[in-house]
Amino acid sequence: xxxxxxxxxxxxxxxxxxxxxLKIRRLPSAHLAASPQLPNARxxxxxxxxxxxxxxxxxxxxxxxxxxxxIVVIAGHSIMLTVSVTDGRVELGNILGDVPALQxxxxxxxxxxxxxxxxxxxxxxxxxxxxxxxxxxxxTRTQRLLRPVFWYLLAVGTxxxxxxxxxxxxxxxxxxxxxxxxxxxLGAYLMILAVVPLMQRIADGATLVATILGCYATTAVMDxxxxxxxxxxxxxxxxxxxxxxxxxxxxxxxxxLIRPILAFGVALGMLAVNIVxxxxxxxxxxxxxxxxxxxxxxTPPSLLLAGHTVVLSCLAxxxxxxxARIVSRPRVWWFVALGNRGAMTLYLWHLPVLALIIGGGxxxxxxxxxxxxxxxxxxxxxxxxxxLTMIPVIGALSRLENRPLRWWDDARNRVASPVRxxxxxxxxxxTGLAILMLARGGxxxxxxxxxxxxxTCALVARVMTRxxxxxxxx
Length: 474
Hints:
Residues 62-386 form the Acyltransferase domain. Pfam families: Acyl_transf_3. By secondary structure, this protein is mainly alpha-helical. The protein has 19 helices and two strands. It has a two-stranded antiparallel sheet with strand order 1-2. The longest helix has 33 residues, at 134-166. It has a domain at 56-132 and 182-403. Strand 1 (81-86) and strand 2 (89-94) form a beta hairpin.
């Protein structure tokens, strides 16, 4: 790996974890990134005008990878889910368990690592050590990341309250568990963002390779401990080591430390390693959790998934020039730019929308059960409907994602004493861990305690970083 002298982009994409406006030439006040309070103006922005206003130094590939990774993951969630009703009881299944031959498709559909890759690259483009300390920089990202989560948890709590009043204990349990299950991703992402400032010290390919190998080796050790002790708790370390790998490669991409041809060769080599791990090792084919698995590759992440993140990230680096040509087209860029404005809305709300679609389908006699003839076509049709329905949902709910909240989004101090900054950093790291643990077990039992711990740490971090200036439209 070599350091290139090519100039790196100076502007940050529509980062799902930052409230900073799009860095472009002088804009009219109605520009979509300048004022989230003008949704109609955003929708009237033509593709050609948005393309013309976008700065030439912007790395649009990062925006494309982030949005596509979420869309594919959401489609995958819908495709995998089967639903049956027996004696009035709703039972959820997984098509990958019913049709094991489909599990190999997860090697194409499990592209969530690209979100970590894109997030770290975007953060690297915007990292200015002279302007920010690590903890306070992290809090800026946390403000944007958790803002839509507050609204989502409020909705989940409201639904739970209604179900309790109605006395539907079965649905209370389902919502309490599944309603927060997908938050694991935000917890893991927040913890990886916490490490991004440390990653900025990487200045050459050798250091980058050594750090990635260290994460990979640590993951291997944790997997061995999982295998021989049967204690899955060892795998919790992998939530950090595995997801750090695509983030590290994102940093390397942003700093031009990896040549595309070398990245392509690494992707092919790691793909071969992964095939050997499945053929001769203890790893199962599916890269997502399937009922009955003896050794999950996803919860917690495994060495096989770590290798998969390398394959995906290196392919992204190798194909960046091709992707750049695609996203440079005005109509494509218009869709990508607006989609990124509601990235967290897309992720958080797709399961409730999917539940409504499936429920409506069952009322109409469209049974999604694996025992139903032609159920595959029903799943495909409802998946397409989900993706189309999410467009107006994003249009309606992304305002909550982009509109600053009083007090929470008040201005922060840009610098702080080393001790104070370290405390803020630690509080937000615990917040990420608490969200991850909340998602793992759901709200019942210890979940409420993890929710309380995460909320407390986030609020204390807010108090320690607040400058006193009111929130502004971003």
